[in-house]
Amino acid sequence: MAPDRASGADGRLPAERIDDLALAAMDAAERGRIAESERLARRAVRLGECIGDGHDRDRNLARALRALGTALRIRGQYREAERTFKQALASGKAVFGRTSLEAAELYNDLGMTFRYLGRFDNAEAAYGRAQLILEALPDVASEDLAALFHNLGGLAHARGDFEAAEPLSRRAVDIRSRSIGSRAPAVMLDRIAHAAILAGLGRADEAEATLRDLLPDLESAFEPDHPEVAVALNNLAAILQARGELAESETLYRRVIAIKSARLGANSPALAVPFNNLGTNLRDQGRTDEAAALYARAAELLAGSVEAGHPNLLAVRRNRARLTASTSL
Amino acid sequence: MSATQQTRDHRRFRLAANDNETMVDTERDVDGHSLTRNDRESIATDELDTEGHRLAANDNETGVERTRRSVLDDSDELDPLRARRIRAR
After folding, report:
1. Does some domain include residue B6?
2. Which of A171, B27, B67, B88 is the most exposed place for a label (fewest CB within 10 A)?
3. Angle between helices A288-303 and A272-284 (to 10 degrees)
4. Cβ-defined contacts of A168-176 (< 8 Å, 24+)
5. The domain containing residue B28 runs over which residues?
């Protein structure tokens, strides 16, 4: 849908315009056009807030706010995303019901947001509610179940519990592959997430083979500068770095930073991981001043965006401390 | 809203999925290279101990449910579906 169709000039009702705007915002998010997604979603929310109290308002606000929360989460504005998803959930439960698919979607969205914030117990509870709802639905889509298992595996990955993560992530791959085929875009994302877990389990060769196999198709299915491509490149770079292939790893990290900066903004906390990782790479090359600056930037981006105990924030601080200790000897 | 619009909405508003990104930690392995945060030995033990229950390994939906805790701060009461499941355990 072209955004100008939602201007109201065609005489359509506000609810139809909100639906179209929210859908366009979600489309833009899928394409990695996050600034456009946020702009469209904010327009949808503004229109929704003009509707008088009642089910029509709740239905439209639930969808508009979900689209906005999605854009905010991808950009790394996790706290605002949490508030937005909670507002969406309140509206969604009021109009669709507490055990509806829409409620499950929003619990899943909240779970993802909590995970990125580093509030893992909250994430587990939110995913649990989504799972209860999905399992009780008479016609749950296998893709929805796959997404939930993908996320449960991702939560265990974030906790550093790769043994727990692997079967959950593998289950997501299996379910979705049976449904839509092993090279479908969503399945490629499942397999990339699974590869990160394999790397964590010490199965780096398998992980590298998967990433190298999928990257060309991933770049075709999305775009070469899509944020999902950046995640795959980051994980491949980390494998290469661990093997001592520092030059290729550095090149990949710099491409990750370029993609994320362009798509998510120069101040997105999503940049903290590649900044940190490039810092460790440069430290391995003896370029300690550059490494220190990257660690400082990574810590700055995370400190204002995630919980104080987030594992990534702690890791950056450890890296800075070790660098300081090693250079002051 | 038309049936076509409903179909499009349902397809687009499916559950989203997160990214698993590898975070590198500078603790060195025997070859002198940096370890990734994926290498569990490189993670301080308190990282894993302060985050509550983990999802069970090699388990299915039942295992996931067994470790579930309600710590959301919204005001949901226990819904009937969940109450039935708990009573059935």
Report:
1. no
2. B88
3. 160
4. A168/B55, A168/B64, A169/A193, A169/A194, A169/A197, A169/B20, A170/A194, A171/A146, A171/B60, A172/A146, A172/A147, A172/A148, A172/B17, A173/A146, A175/A142, A175/A143, A175/A145, A175/A146, A175/A149, A176/A142, A176/A143, A176/A146
5. 20-48
Distance (Å, whole) CA A100 – CA A87: 16
Phi, psi (rounded to 5 degrees) for A15: -60, -40
Query: Any chain B CB within 8 A of the CB of A164?
Result: yes
Average pLDDT over residues B59-85: 32
A269-282 confidence digits (pLDDT tens)? 999 999 999 999 99
Cβ contacts of A328 within 8 Å, gap of 6 or more: none
Asked if A197 and B39 come within 8 Å (Cβ–Cβ), the reply is no
Computed over every residue of chain A, the mean pLDDT equals 94
Q: At residue B71, what are phi and psi to the nearest 5 degrees?
A: -125, 15
In angstroms, what CA-CA distances link A18 with A2, A25, A62? 13, 10, 11
Residue where the block lists tokens 């033990």: B45
Would you say residue B5 lies in a domain? Answer: no
Q: How many domains does chain B have?
A: 1
Residues 29-48 of B with CB under 8 A from A: 29, 31-40, 43-44, 47-48
Q: Would you say A49 and A61 are in contact if contact means Cβ atoms under 8 Å apart?
A: yes
CA angle A25, A217, A22 (to 5 degrees): 5
pLDDT of residue A107: 97
Q: Is residue B34 a part of any domain in this protein?
A: yes
Residue B74 counted as domain residue: no
Q: How many residues does chain B have?
A: 89
Contacts of B66 in chain A (CB under 8 A): none
pLDDT digits (tens, 9 = 90+) for A18-41: 999 999 999 999 999 999 999 999
Joined together, the tokens standing for residue A24 give: 């366009």
Chain centre distance of CA A300: 20
pTM, whole model, 2 decimals?
A: 0.82
The SS3 call for residue B69 is: coil
* Backbone angles phi and psi of A219, in degrees to 5: -65, -30
